[in-house]
Structures are given as structure tokens and as C-alpha cells.
Amino acid sequence: MRTPNNDLLIDRCLRGDRAAQNELYQREVQGVFHLVIRLVANRMDAEDLTQECFLKAFQRLPQFRGDASLRTWIKRIAINLSLEHLRRNQPLIVPVEDHLLPVEEALPEVDTFRIHEAIKELPKGCRVILTLYLLEGYRQTEIADIMEVSVSTVKSQYWRAKHLLRQALTTNTVKYG
Question: In this structure, are residues 141 and 151 in contact, taking their beta carbons and an 8 Å threshold?
């Protein structure tokens, strides 16, 4: 979605206006970093990927069509970079048998810090799907497209993430392994 303010900012960035580039960076960097750190669960990697995201965004800015908001477009670059980073070492998705999925019960109240720490410890695929669905608001079909998996895989991995998160938050242990 193009807006007059974004169009002006994009035009200034495309002309090499450093102040405009800095303005765009400052406006979006926090959101991108928070998204990336939730996906990769490592601060140094998240900082590197955030910088790489903005380098790619500025390089690809001439190709921005405005189908989505500029913020969404930049976050999609961040997601793709994060997924590439995570895939370098091992597959993201671990199969889950649907018939083994038990019924869930309500969680006791837990502080936000403990929740974030537990999310960081989730297996990569579960952490990515939980973050995109629950925290970033993507639909399961969008996540399936982004991750190049089936919707049923997204659903089972989301369930697995919730199950592991629930286990971590109802016990004093956080490691899954």
C-alpha cells in the first residue's frame, strides 16, 4: 500500500538522500530487530540479520510495488533472511503425529520475560511458526507459503510450539531436547 508520505520517503531514498535513508531505518529498525530476534533467538545473529535486511531493502527499493505496506515489505525481507539463516544448519520442521495431540488446559499466569525466554528455547520451526502466527499476526496459509510447507504442517508445528511452551511454563525447566 503506497501512501503519499511513504512515496516521498521512497523517492528521497532512491535519489540517495542519506537523511531519508536514516529516517526509514530509524522508523523500522526496532520492529525488524524484534521480529528477527524472536525468529533466530540469538542477539548477535539478529543484529547481523537486521542490518542485512536493511541493506537488501535499500538495494531492492526500486522494485517496491506497493502491494503491501512498506513496513510489511521490509518485514518480509527480514523473515526470508531469518529463515535462510535457520535453514543453513538443519531443517526447520520436525514431523508431529496428529493423533498424538492431547487436549490443552488453561495456563497459570506467567510473567512476560519468562514467556519470551521459553519461546527462545523452542525448536526453530516451532519458534518461527509461533512467532509469525501468534506475535506477528500472519495467517496459517501465509506462513505455509513463506515456509514452503503445507497448512497442516503449520498447524501441527503451531500446536507443538504451544505444547512445548506450555510444558516449559508449567515447570521450572525451559530447555527442549
Answer: yes
Domain 4-87 classified CATH 1.10.486.10?
no
CATH 1.10.10.10 maps onto the chain at 98-170
From-to residues of CATH 1.10.1740.10 in the chain: 4-87
Q: What is the pLDDT of residues 69-115, one digit of tens each?
A: 899 999 999 999 999 998 887 665 655 554 444 545 555 567 788 88
98-170 under CATH 3.30.1240.10, yes or no:
no
Q: Average pLDDT over the chain, rounded to whole? A: 85
Is this model's pTM higher than 0.85 or not?
no
pLDDT in tens, 54-71: 999 999 999 998 888 899
Which pLDDT score, from 0 to 100, does residue 34 have?
Answer: 94
